[in-house]
């Protein structure tokens, strides 16, 4: 029978040969030669040679000798003398001090005045290969178990995502939040997508099925594609066909160093679908440990058992997770292997709740709806609210020399169909399996002291793969039928990128100024499977008339369709992004991107520009401890244009006007404009406060229509004329060891769609403006962590205001709710390297729901079945409300093994 075999995690990964293109680019090498030829460096050394000549006849020569040894250190205060004469507003915030409590050196800022180490990768290059651990750690993993030392480590750590350049979060042109590996452990997240639940300006909807998680950033509700990119070490993982990033739920947690969330327009740097932001997962790579001469094996592992309390009645239903990473570091190379395996079930108690009938278990087992013979034949597909949640991941990395990386990754997400569909139309059982395979080579090189190069060649395979089988109730020629589908949908892509990072010497035009340039080229070819025109290959289909006198009815099976049409799409683009640092306290950002796409055979240009100002409002110092107490202010203004390209899933289903054929191609893109401003107040070592506002406008947003088809419920997208969003975000973080507190509040001031100027057929009625729908106007998040070393406790909560739903939803509002989670952790108990944790989600047992996805048009009217078998039930194909899990318990056992110090740094 279908799905009678156990789920297989292992997949064969076919690895084509990869070769890195040549890095010799004549223009860049010429520029690097010119830069290297600047006579600035020898000029600085001239005064050093004259100092002994002047003081040689002095009687106190022996006393002057020691200062001569420390002359380089003495130069630093001299160099800052002009800054000291400037008003406080012109001074940039000083680098954070090293706290005496720290057991290792904390370096958050690169000093551009210090000469770079010979052969070292420039600090302006992406940090994925540069290293990301603190000095003094033993293995290749970052040792942040002792926690942060100051508030700067939390809110102003180095980032690389906003501009493809290594800079601090305060220096980046966009608002950047950092979630560290310690944050993930302290909060008890069991999969990486749970980070989304606690991000400001984010409305998260969790169907838990094929639409596993939907994220509406800053009020932008989308169908499948998302207007932000999800990356792992700077490599995009959004699905090639759907353009969503929900595969992030499969990522191993044990190899994560931190996550960078950059808000705002980034299409000028990253291209399409970075219109509203970026999520970049930075992993541990062992580079710093290797640079320190440390070799050996490091292991991190987590075993997690638990789930919603309603699932503990059956031994097979609780969630089981194995997550582990092994890293071997040698002198000239490193190898890391990470894996994750998860098996569980969505909260079964959802099927017992009476608040929403179209998720009730009794409806899935009703023979009047599903034919008893079908229920008996396919118990794994039908008969109960039972939606599995299975994930698998493998991430292998080989690092050679100073900057070569070869990666092979596979992420698999196989789930039931959750709460997305009404029980009278589709069973929650079955499996929907999405798979992402990525094989790439990347090389980072220093072409000169001021020019860095990054080359990437990647092969991708995004697919809906076997096992993907499900049971629906449809209407055929002879009335209602139970139809079983088995489908696949493979899509392939090849990506080549070349980035250069160029930094001119300081004092180019003014004292302490500096010009930096980022230049990049990108080519991508994607081969999209179109299948029957909707992106799927029909592997098998069986249907059983529900009202037939024959208990088996009529069974038909369709096998094959291997020779299916495909659509090749090429995208070629390049960008130039400049940063001009002026008087240390001011930075100007400006750049543009030119991109050509073969799907539209058109070329587009997007721009981004911004200003960052850093000011010291108050400063005092303590002579004894040499600590600087400082209150500083960072202000940012950013304008950017964006490109949002819906996936071919939307494109193949969108209904345009018939009068203008060219509009069908132009409508694929959704150009946008964003302007935002923010201010961050930092009280050194203790407090950070953020306030920001934004305005977003896009053209041709795609929405789902209420039009239903007798044969296909997944159709009917149209383009509206315009979407406008405006809002503000405020937040604060406080740190005073051992206490850390954080709180954020997001307010949507405006979220409207305008039908005027839209592209849709005459049978669709739309006029004027209307609320986007399904986004909460008020949202709040907060928490507190107590960390005294071996014991850590975190309590955190979130509040979502009532949400007005989309116009197609008969349930016009989703009630407000609040939830509270808690997590406690013991480390190095009873032996070093062991850890134990207990997480309780939804402590108060709040019964709440999220708004439905797509048209969300099922309603909640009672179901009726006439004598002839005619069913009057749900009004549409997608549930109007998505019930969410009740209280849950998760126990974690961790074991970390760090290698002994076998060598010493040179």
Mean pLDDT: 82
Oligomeric composition of the shown chains: single chain
Termini, distance in Å?
Answer: 64 Å
Radius of gyration: 29 Å
* Overall spatial form: globular
Q: Count the DSSP helices.
A: 15
Number of beta-strand segments: 41
The secondary-structure class comes to mainly beta
Major sheet description? 22 strands, antiparallel, barrel
Percent strand equals: 35-45%
**Uncertain spans, ≥5 residues at pLDDT below 50?**
1-90, 94-145, 657-666, 708-714
**Helical amount:** 10-25%
SSE diagram, text form:
Blueprint: H1 26-36, H2 40-55, H3 61-69, H4 71-79, H5 81-85, H6 127-130, H7 151-155, E1 158-159, E2 167-168, E3 176-180, H8 181-187, E4 202-205, E5 214-217, E6 229-232, E7 235-236, E8 256-263, H9 267-270, E9 277-283, H10 287-291, E10 296-308, E11 319-329, E12 333-345, H11 361-364, H12 367-370, H13 372-377, E13 388-400, E14 404-415, E15 431-448, E16 451-476, E17 479-503, E18 514-529, E19 537-545, E20 566-582, E21 586-597, E22 602-622, E23 627-644, H14 648-651, H15 661-666, E24 670-683, E25 687-699, E26 702-704, E27 717-719, E28 722-736, E29 739-754, E30 769-771, E31 778-787, E32 791-800, E33 803-804, E34 813-814, E35 817-827, E36 834-841, E37 849-851, E38 864-865, E39 871-872, E40 881-883, E41 888-897
Parallel strand pairs: 6-9
Antiparallel strand pairs: 1-2, 3-8, 4-5, 6-7, 8-9, 10-11, 10-41, 11-12, 12-13, 13-14, 14-15, 15-16, 16-17, 17-18, 17-19, 18-20, 20-21, 21-22, 22-23, 23-24, 24-25, 25-28, 26-27, 28-29, 29-30, 29-31, 31-32, 32-35, 33-34, 35-36, 36-41, 37-40, 38-39
């Amino acid at each position: 029978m279908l799905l009678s075999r156990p789920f297989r995690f292992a997949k064969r990964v076919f690895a084509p040969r990869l070769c890195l293109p040549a890095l010799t680019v004549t223009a860049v090498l010429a520029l690097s030669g010119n830069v290297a030829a600047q006579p600035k460096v020898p000029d600085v050394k001239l005064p050093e040679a004259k100092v002994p000549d002047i003081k040689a006849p002095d009687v106190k020569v022996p006393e002057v000798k020691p200062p001569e040894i420390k002359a380089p250190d003495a130069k630093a205060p001299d160099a800052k003398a002009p800054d000291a004469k400037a008003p406080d507003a012109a001074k940039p915030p000083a680098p954070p001090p090293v706290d005496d409590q720290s057991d290792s050196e904390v370096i958050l800022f690169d000093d551009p005045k210090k000469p770079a180490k010979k052969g070292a990768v420039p600090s302006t290059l992406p940090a994925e290969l540069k290293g990301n651990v603190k000095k003094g750690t033993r293995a290749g993993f970052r040792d942040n178990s002792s926690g942060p030392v100051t508030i700067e480590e939390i809110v102003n750590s180095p980032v690389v995502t906003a501009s493809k350049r290594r800079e601090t979060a305060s220096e980046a042109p966009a608002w950047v939040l950092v979630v560290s590996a310690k944050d993930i452990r302290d909060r008890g997240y069991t999969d990486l997508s749970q980070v989304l639940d606690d991000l400001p300006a984010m409305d998260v909807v969790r169907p838990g099925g094929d639409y596993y998680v939907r994220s509406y950033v800053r009020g932008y509700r989308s169908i499948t594609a998302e207007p932000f990119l999800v990356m792992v070490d700077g490599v995009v993982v959004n699905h090639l066909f759907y353009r969503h990033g929900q595969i992030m739920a499969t990522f191993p947690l044990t190899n994560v160093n931190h996550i960078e969330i950059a808000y705002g327009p980034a299409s000028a740097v990253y291209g399409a679908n970075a219109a509203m932001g970026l999520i970049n997962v930075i992993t541990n790579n062992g580079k710093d440990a290797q640079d320190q001469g440390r070799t050996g094996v490091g292991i991190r592992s987590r075993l997690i058992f638990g789930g919603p309390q309603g699932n503990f009645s059956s031994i097979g239903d609780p969630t089981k997770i194995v997550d582990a990473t092994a890293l071997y570091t040698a002198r000239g190379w490193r190898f890391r292997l990470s894996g994750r395996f998860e098996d569980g079930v969505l909260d079964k108690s959802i099927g017992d709740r009476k608040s929403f009938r179209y998720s009730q278990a009794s409806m899935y087992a009703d023979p009047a709806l599903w034919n008893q013979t079908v229920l008996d034949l396919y118990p794994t597909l039908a008969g109960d609210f039972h939606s599995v949640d299975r994930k698998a991941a493998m991430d292998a990395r080989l690092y050679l020399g100073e900057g070569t990386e070869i990666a092979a990754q596979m992420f698999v997400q196989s789930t039931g169909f959750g709460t997305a569909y009404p029980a009278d139309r589709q069973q929650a059982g079955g499996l929907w399996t999405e798979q992402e395979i990525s094989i790439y080579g990347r090389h980072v090189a220093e072409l000169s002291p001021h020019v860095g190069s990054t080359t990437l060649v990647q092969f991708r395979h995004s697919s809906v793969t076997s096992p993907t089988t499900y049971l629906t109730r449809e209407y055929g020629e002879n009335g209602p039928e139970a139809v079983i589908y088995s489908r696949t949908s493979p899509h392939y892509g090849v990506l080549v990128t070349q980035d250069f990072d160029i930094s001119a010497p300081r004092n180019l035009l003014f004292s302490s100024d500096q010009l930096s340039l980022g230049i990049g080229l990108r080519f991508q070819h994607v081969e999209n499977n179109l299948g029957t025109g909707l992106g799927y290959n029909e592997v098998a289909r069986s249907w059983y008339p529900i009202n037939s006198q024959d208990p088996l009815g009529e069974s038909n099976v369709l096998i094959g369709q291997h020779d299916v049409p495909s659509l090749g799409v090429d995208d070629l683009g390049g960008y130039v992004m400049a940063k001009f640092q002026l008087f240390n306290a001011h930075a100007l950002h400006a750049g543009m991107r030119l991109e050509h796409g073969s799907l539209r055979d058109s070329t587009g240009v997007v721009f981004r520009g911004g200003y960052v100002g850093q000011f010291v409002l108050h400063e005092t110092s303590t002579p004894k401890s040499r600590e600087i107490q400082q209150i500083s202010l960072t202000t940012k203004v950013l304008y950017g244009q964006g490109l949002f390209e819906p996936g071919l899933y939307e494109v193949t289903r969108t209904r345009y006007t018939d009068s203008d054929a060219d509009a069908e191609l132009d409508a694929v893109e959704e150009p946008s404009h964003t302007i935002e401003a923010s201010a961050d107040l930092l009280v050194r070592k203790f407090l950070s406060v953020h306030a920001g506002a934004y305005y977003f406008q896009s053209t041709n947003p795609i929405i789902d229509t209420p039009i239903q088809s007798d044969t296909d419920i997944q159709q009917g997208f149209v383009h509206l004329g315009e979407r406008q969003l405006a809002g503000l975000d405020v937040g604060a973080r406080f740190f005073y060891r051992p206490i850390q507190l954080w709180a954020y509040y997001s307010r949507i001031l405006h979220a409207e769609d305008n039908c005027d100027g839209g592209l849709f057929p005459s049978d669709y009625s739309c006029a004027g403006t209307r609320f986007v729908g399904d986004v909460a106007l008020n949202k709040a998040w907060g928490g507190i962590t107590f960390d005294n070393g071996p014991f850590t406790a975190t309590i955190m909560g979130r509040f979502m205001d009532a949400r007005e739903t989309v116009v197609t939803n008969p349930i016009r509002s989703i009630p407000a709710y609040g939830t509270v989670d808690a997590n406690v952790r013991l480390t190095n108990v009873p032996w070093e390297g062991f850890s134990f944790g207990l997480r309780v989600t939804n402590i108060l047992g709040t019964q709440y729901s999220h708004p439905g996805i797509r048209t969300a048009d099922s309603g909640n009217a009672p179901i009726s079945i006439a004598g002839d078998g005619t069913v009057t039930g749900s009004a549409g194909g997608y549930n109007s409300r998505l019930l969410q899990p009740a209280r849950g318990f998760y126990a974690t056992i961790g074991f970390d093994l760090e290698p002994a110090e076998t060598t010493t740094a040179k």
